[in-house]
Amino acid sequence: MAARDFYHEHVKTALTKGGWTITDDPYLVEWLGKKLQIDLGAERLIAAEKGTEKIAVEVKSFIGPSKIEDLEDALGQFMLYRFSLKRAAPERLLYLAIHEDAYTSIFQQPDGEALLEDERLRLIVFSIDRKEIVKWIS
Prior knowledge:
By secondary structure, the chain is of the alpha/beta class. It has helices at 8-17, 67-88, 100-107, 110-118, and strands spanning 21-24, 27-31, 34-38, 40-47, 51-59, 92-99, 123-127, 132-137.
């Protein structure tokens, strides 16, 4: 099993507080005959007549010496996982979970905003201290 990101448990707690049920830890998909491990799979009931909403979440800590290198790694994984998930479980949406400071320093800058839009990134922004989701970006 791959090493978990530093804030893995923070995100699990935040999702649970937000009404999500963790269904997979990790969520496995296959690509080129290899098992890929997306950090979490979760679902929640949205309404009796609508059924369940399903997501997969890749947690990124952004605690390395370079936020740009952390972003390169995160985007590479996100793109590969999104591609694989689209074929294996198209009903499940992929989100990248990052903490508030990483969101502010990267995605609230003009280039980061453009990246979010151009690449159609879905983000879960969480509070490290409160272990809660503070923003969903779809």
